[in-house]
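Severity: low
Component: inverse-folding endpoint
Summary: output formatting inconsistent between runs
Steps to reproduce: submit the following C-alpha cells with default settings.
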C-alpha cells in the first residue's frame, strides 16, 4: 500500500468537508516562524513519519513560544524513524479537546467490502481499544453500491453509547470520510483521534491514509513517487524498477533492494523469483548455505519476455553481487521460454561475468532450459538451468559449487554495444522498438524470425521480414515483445533483429551516459 503523510491525508479530509486544524508544513528551521504566525501559539510540532506512537519517540512536541517551536523542528529534522529520515515537520494549532474518538474506513478482505469502524474511545491504536473496551467499538459493513449511508453510520455509533446531536455530527463525518476513501481508492483511511473541541465542533486531529498500489496511477495529484511499502527510503534502483512496473500492466514485476554498501566476495546474490512461496523457499535454501540476498525480485503472472529482461538488467545493475540466482514456484502457468529469452537478452547484453543458476519450472520448461543454457555458452560466466523437479535446495547447492569453482576474468567484460543497422526496417512496440537490418536479413537462409514469432505478426516480403499487421496495431500490443526476432535470429539466423527496450534512468545510474 502507498502511504500518505499526515498532512497529505488532512488535505483530503478538508477537501471532503471534514474540519482539520490549521497547519503549515516546514522543511527547514527557517520556515518555523512563518508557520507559527499562521497557526498561532501554543502549537503542536509533529514529525512526518510513517509510524504510530510518535509521541513516545520524541516525534511530537508542544511549543509555547517561537523558540520552543524552532528547537522542536530542528530536533525532528535530525531524526531517523524506522529507517526513514524526517524531511518534513507539521506545525499545527493546538486544539482544546474535550473528547476523543476513533473513526476508520478499512477494506475488509474477508467480506470483500469496506468496513466502517468507530470507537467512542480514541487516542491509541484501534486494536488496543478493542481489547480494552470491546463495548466501545462498533462496525458497519458498507455496500459499495450505495456507499456509507447516514443512518448506517448512526446505527453503528449508537451501539457505543453516543446519542443526540453528537451522534449526528459523528455520522456526518463518517459519511464524508467514506467519500474521501472511495474517491482516492484508499485501503484504509483512519482519523485517530477524531475530537470534539471546546466550541463543540468535530475536528480530525490526526489521520492515516493508505492508497491501493494499483490505484496510484489514477491519482497523480497525490504526488506518490513510488507505490510500495519499504523499510527504507526507496533507492535509485527501487525507483527505476517501479517505473517499469507502473508503466507496464502485463504481469507482475516487483523489485526491492535489501542490502547496500556490501563488497565483492561477501556472498551477496542477485535474486530473481517468480511467485512468493517458491521464492521464499529458494531464499531459505541460499541463506542456509551462508549467502546473503541482495534484492528481492518477482516476475510472475505471465509477464512478457521484455519485462523479465528489464528485471534482470536491474538486478545486474547491483555492482557487487557475486552471483545471480533465479527460482520460483516450479508450477508457474506462464510459458517459461518467454522468461528464458528475457534472461538471455539481459545476460548477453551485459556480457555477464557472475555465475548464474536459474530454475524455470512450468509450461514448456524443456524449451526454456534449452534456450537459457545453449544460448549463453559463449558468455564469460557459466549459466545453468533447472526444471520444476529439481529442488530449490539442489539449485542452491549448484550455485555454491559454481561460486567455489568460478574464476572471474581479471577485468570485468564490457557490455555489448547496441547493433547498428545498415538498412533498418523498424516498428514500435508497446514499450520499445523492433529493428531488422534488411542488409543482414537478405543473407539469412533460415528466416527463423518469422517462424518463431509467437504472435505471428511477421511475414516475408521479397524475402525480408516485415509486419503482417499495421504499425499502429504493433505499437498497441499486438507485438508481445517475445524477443524471438532477436534471440532466435542471433542464434540461428543472421543476427539481423534487435529489440530496443529502454529502461528509464538505468544508463545514468550505471554511468553509461
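Observed output (run 2 of 3):
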Amino acid at each position: 500500500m502507498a502511504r500518505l503523510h499526515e498532512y497529505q491525508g488532512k488535505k483530503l479530509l478538508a477537501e471532503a468537508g471534514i474540519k482539520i486544524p490549521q497547519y503549515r508544513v516546514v522543511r527547514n528551521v527557517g520556515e518555523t516562524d512563518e508557520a507559527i504566525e499562521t497557526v498561532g501559539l501554543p502549537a503542536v510540532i509533529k514529525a512526518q513519519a510513517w509510524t504510530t506512537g510518535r509521541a513516545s519517540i520524541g516525534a511530537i512536541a508542544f511549543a509555547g513560544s517561537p523558540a520552543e517551536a524552532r528547537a522542536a523542528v530542528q530536533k525532528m529534522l535530525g531524526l531517523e524513524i524506522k529507517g526513514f529520515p524526517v524531511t518534513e515537520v507539521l506545525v499545527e494549532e493546538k486544539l482544546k479537546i474535550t473528547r476523543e474518538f476513533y473513526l476508520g474506513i478499512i477494506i475488509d478482505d474477508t467480506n470483500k467490502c469496506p468496513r466502517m469502524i468507530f470507537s467512542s474511545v480514541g487516542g491509541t491504536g484501534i486494536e488496543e481499544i478493542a481489547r480494552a473496551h470491546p463495548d466501545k467499538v462498533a462496525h458497519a459493513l458498507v455496500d459499495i453500491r450505495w456507499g456509507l449511508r447516514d443512518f448506517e453510520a448512526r446505527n453503528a455509533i449508537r451501539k457505543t453509547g453516543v446519542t443526540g446531536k453528537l451522534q449526528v455530527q459523528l455520522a456526518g463525518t463518517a459519511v464524508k470520510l467514506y467519500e474521501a476513501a472511495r474517491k482516492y481508492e484508499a485501503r484504509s483511511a483512519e482519523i485517530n483521534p477524531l475530537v470534539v473541541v471546546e466550541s463543540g465542533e468535530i475536528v480530525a486531529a490526526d489521520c492515516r491514509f493508505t492508497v491501493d498500489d494499483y490505484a496510484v496511477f489514477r491519482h497523480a495529484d497525490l504526488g506518490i513517487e513510488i507505490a510500495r511499502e519499504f523499510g527504507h527510503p526507496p533507492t535509485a534502483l527501487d525507483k527505476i524498477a517501479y517505473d517499469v512496473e507502473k508503466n507496464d500492466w502485463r504481469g507482475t514485476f516487483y523489485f526491492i533492494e535489501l542490502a547496500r554498501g556490501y563488497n565483492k566476495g561477501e556472498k551477496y546474490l542477485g535474486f530473481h523469483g517468480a511467485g512468493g512461496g517458491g521464492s521464499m523457499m529458494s531464499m531459505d535454501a541460499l541463506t542456509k548455505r551462508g549467502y546473503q540476498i541482495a534484492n528481492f525480485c518477482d516476475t510472475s503472472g505471465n509477464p512478457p519476455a521484455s519485462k523479465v529482461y528489464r528485471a534482470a538488467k536491474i538486478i545486474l545493475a547491483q555492482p557487487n553481487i557475486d552471483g545471480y540466482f533465479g527460482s520460483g514456484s516450479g508450477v508457474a502457468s506462464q510459458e517459461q521460454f518467454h522468461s528464458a529469452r528475457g534472461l538471455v537478452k539481459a545476460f548477453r547484453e551485459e556480457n555477464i561475468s557472475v555465475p548464474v543458476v536459474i530454475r524455470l519450472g512450468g509450461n514448456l520448461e524443456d524449451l526454456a532450459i534449452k534456450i537459457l543454457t545453449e544460448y549463453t555458452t559463449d558468455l564469460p560466466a557459466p549459466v545453468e538451468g533447472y526444471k520444476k523437479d529439481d529442488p530449490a535446495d539442489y539449485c542452491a547447492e549448484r550455485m555454491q559449487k559454481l561460486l567455489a569453482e568460478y574464476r572471474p576474468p581479471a577485468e570485468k567484460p564490457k557490455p555489448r554495444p547496441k547493433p547498428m543497422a545498415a538498412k533498418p526496417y523498424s516498428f514500435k512496440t508497446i514499450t520499445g522498438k523492433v529493428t531488422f537490418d534488411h542488409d543482414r536479413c537478405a543473407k539469412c537462409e533460415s528466416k527463423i524470425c518469422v517462424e518463431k514469432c509467437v504472435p505471428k505478426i511477421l511475414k516475408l516480403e521479397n524475402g525480408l521480414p516485415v509486419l503482417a499487421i499495421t504499425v499502429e496495431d504493433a505499437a498497441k500490443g499486438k507485438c508481445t515483445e517475445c524477443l524471438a526476432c532477436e534471440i532466435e535470429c542471433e542464434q540461428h539466423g543472421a543476427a539481423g533483429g534487435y529489440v530496443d527496450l529502454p529502461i528509464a534512468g538505468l544508463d545514468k545510474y550505471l554511468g553509461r551516459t
